[in-house]
Amino acid sequence: MQSAPPGVIFDLDGVLTDTAELHYQCWQALADELGLPFDRQANEALRGLSREESLAKFLGPRAAEFSEQQKLELARRKNEDYLRRVAGLTPADLAPGAAELLSELRRRGARLAVASASRNAAAVIDRLGIGPLLDVLVDGNEVERSKPDPQVFLRAAERLALPPRRCVVVEDAASGVDAALAAGMRVVGLGPPERVGRAHCVKPRLAELSADELLALLDG
Ligand code: BG6
Ligand code: MG
Fold first, then answer.
1. Which residues contact 103 (CB under 8 A, 6 or more apart)?
2. Known catalytic residue: 18?
3. Looking at beta carbons, which pairs linking 155-160 to residues 24 or more positions away fall under 8 Å?
4. Which of 156, 163, 166, 211 is the most buried (most CB within 10 A)?
5. Nearest alpha carbon, ligand 1 atom 16
């Protein structure tokens, strides 16, 4: 019996494009306004978390000073700022090697998905111009449980019509690596081993990952 085609599921922010930096700029601006301590290192802890979880971590012990209504307003303003920055993205903001990798994987018959915690994923994909290269998008608007819950990746596999064992995930966040492992998928972690070391394969950045290496993870 012929095995199912391979599926490759990409996280978006921090994998196909460096929107992690845009998120950082938004949180930093809010931190400066509120007089909260924040820096790039603190931002690392927000990678992969949903907007609400990020806000809770961002406010830390000061969360108690804000009513639910005020927290909603802070999240809304952060997102408004983020969308302004997203509007400035162009295909030149794709991670180096991303377009070539997606095209090569398609040429080899892989089915491709993006699975992101972001509720802005469609806008980002649109600005980057990679919509036509993808078969499936599952984003934060259609899942109830955020990573490290496997729901977003299982939903992507389902929509690709592939079993989880035929899917490999590319992730930059510790919570995303854990979600992919919990989904029973192979995982490539992008970034430092302290962050993504639980993945089956670790690379510093996407440009150093080939279609061969990705697909070989599904062999055997
Ligand atoms: C993830 C990012 O992809 O999406 C997080 O890594 C972000 O930093 C999360 O908080 C939610 O994004 P959004 O766009 O819905 O606020
Ligand atoms: Mg990410």
1. 133
2. no
3. 155/115, 156/7, 156/9, 156/113, 156/114, 156/115, 157/7, 157/9, 157/113, 157/183, 157/185, 159/113, 159/135, 160/7, 160/9, 160/111, 160/113, 160/135, 160/136
4. 156
5. 51
Strand 7-10 and strand 111-115: the pairing is parallel
How many angstroms does the Cα of residue 209 sit away from the middle of ligand 2? 16
* pTM of the complete model: 0.96
Per residue of the chain (220 residues), what is the pLDDT tens digit? 567 999 999 999 999 999 989 999 999 999 999 999 999 999 999 999 999 999 999 999 999 999 999 999 999 999 999 999 999 999 999 999 999 999 999 999 999 999 999 999 999 999 999 999 999 999 999 999 999 999 999 999 999 999 999 999 999 999 999 999 999 999 999 999 999 999 999 999 999 999 999 999 998 6
* 3 alpha carbon – ligand 1 mean position (Å): 34
Mutate which of 52, 54, 57 for ligand 1? The one with the most ligand atoms within 8 Å of its CB, which is: 54
- 11 as an active site residue: the answer is yes
